[in-house]
Amino acid sequence: MNMLKSWKFWAVMAGITGLMGLFAFGFTKDPRKVPSPLVGKPAPGFSLVDINTGEQLSNETLKGTPYILNFWASWCVACRTEARVLEHAFQRYWKGQQLFRVIGIAIQDTPEKARAFARNFGKTYYLALDNESGDIALNYGLYGVPESFFVDAEGVIRYKEIGPVTPRSVEEIMVPVAKKLPYTVPE
Amino acid sequence: MYSADMMFSGFRFKAIRSGARAGTGVTARSAALLVAVLLLAGLLNAGPALAQMLSGEALDAEVRRISDGLRCPTCQGISVNDSDASFSNQIKDKVRRMLMEGQNEEQIRAYFVSRYGEWILRAPKKEGLGLVLWVLPGLLMLVIGFWVGYKVYTNTRENIEEQQQELSQPQDDKSGLTTEQLQRIEKDLKRYEELD
Fold first, then answer.
1. For chain B, what are the domain ranges?
2. Is the ipTM reported for this complex over the cut 0.95?
3. Are A93 and A78 in contact, with CB atoms under 8 Å apart?
4. Is A108 within 8 Å of B86 when comparing Cβ atoms?
5. Which chain B residue has its CA at the smallest distance from A140's CA?
6. Helix, strand, or coil (residue A73)
7. Which of A79, A169, B21, B61 has the fewest CB atoms within 10 Å distance of its CB?
8. Does B74 touch chain A (CB under 8 A)?
9. Do A134 and B90 touch (CB under 8 A)?
10. Domain B56-120 falls in which CATH fold?
11. Does residue B93 belong to the interface with chain A, where contact is any CB pair within 8 Å?
12. Candidate from A83-92, A102-111, B29-38, B127-136 with smallest mean pLDDT
């Protein structure tokens, strides 16, 4: 009973409760989701060459067109799951509606392996390769693959997705951004 | 050896020969002085950049030192320098190239922070909330140190005072106990006898 009257007891209890609260708060956050400082800023510049057609493309030539910039690799297992989602988005929203483009940049990869992956998983959209130094990947602050950015018509990054692109993020974030409609990024 | 004055007199001679008015020599000297000062200022300004133009082992050491302050993006809790992951190697290569271009550590760190955020730095910045993180452990240690010191001091003083008090009291010659202690023992013994 005397213990309950001691300020030391309550100080220790307050400390323990505070620490437990801090841990509980930490568990509600996904440690993989680190906010990118690039969102809301102009997309870093790049210059690409299509691995299939040789078509050249840069962030400057893309001004006026929204696009998904998807970083992937032939050795990346998770990239297989998003391949069809991206191809579907390309077919529907670029080929069908001219709403936004899909651009894939393979990192730490070879043209042969990237082409073989694209053939196996039916990728027909624009595919290029980062250089050996990984300049584009570093400029975009990549943690790994797959990672994707959605860039609006003004060339500003509006959204970053860590992990495979999902149909939900295409429909609920990328399409509204391209159409200049309101959207919310899920927590 | 040419003195500065001889050099400046050359300017003056040229100015007089070209038919300039009297006093142009002074103007030429001022101009030469101004050029010299500007050159010196330019050199001083370029100093830090030139100092960064490293090569060989010095460059390797600087790459290691800066990479040690960057977090490996694909690993768990280790620095870019300690990691052999592809991303870490590309970051090390980028640091090397930036150093060779004459950029300093601050510029290199700023580049990575602009791409990855503060997360990429292994040590928080010594400003804003980061400063609190730097100061707090030291402040806590200081408070705990003061508290422990205060406790040790007061306990020691109390002990000394108690001992002095005990020593100042009259003691029984045979037992070495104080009168107060003897009285307490006798009182306790009486209580035991009463219980019996």
1. 4-52, 56-120, 130-195
2. no
3. no
4. yes
5. B115
6. coil
7. B21
8. yes
9. yes
10. Helicase, Ruva Protein; domain 3 (1.10.8)
11. yes
12. B29-38
